[in-house]
Amino acid sequence: MEKGILFVVSGPSGVGKGTIMEAVSKARGEDMVVSVSATTRQPRPGETDGVSYFFLTEEEFFEKRDANGFIEFALVHGSWYGTPKDWVEARLAEGRDVILEIDVQGALQVKEYTRDASYIFILPPSLRELRRRITERGTETDEQIRIRMNKVMEEIEHLDRYDYAIVNDDLDKAVEEMLTLMKTGRNRLKSDVYDIIESYREEI
Ligand code: 5GP
Domain 6-35+96-203 sits in which CATH superfamily? Predict the structure, then answer.
């Protein structure tokens, strides 16, 4: 069976990553999953343990980190977040594509973990619109909104480490673009290219 592909999706908080991922998951069905991260942040109303995140205490998080249980981990907006290695590797082995919705620090660590991943950055149409979306969501305090807005320009500085960018000014269009990029991502899977290069050696 063909192994699944890892897609890394980053973008500022409030840009609509979650909504895009939901629509993409629906369109792709069983052959794609969005990874469930571990975090030490408090659950928001409506979030379920094991579905939105695995909610851990700091002690539990550090124990898993020290046991090499994460593909990547990072301190984001004052809480720890990490991608569980076993969970992701099991899904890829089943032949499913896996999306990691993680911040830039984490994405850079994934580059150390594998050369087979496709990196997609989602941008807001404007900062004003981003602030409006975060404020409307109503789940963050003013201080948390300030921290998240400050992080935006910092994250955008790393855009050149990503393969593709999507501007989310229209949800349907963003979802279409994402689905197209996922097909492209499969075509340019680097391990296939390395296999071909390996076969050149046999021809020499
Ligand atoms: P939120 O708390 O709003 O769900 O997520 C806050 C930020 O943490 C987002 O930018 C999200 O991409 C990032 N994040 C979520 N899970 C992970 C993870 O496993 N690793 C890293 N590095 N960042 C994550």
Answer: P-loop containing nucleotide triphosphate hydrolases (3.40.50.300)
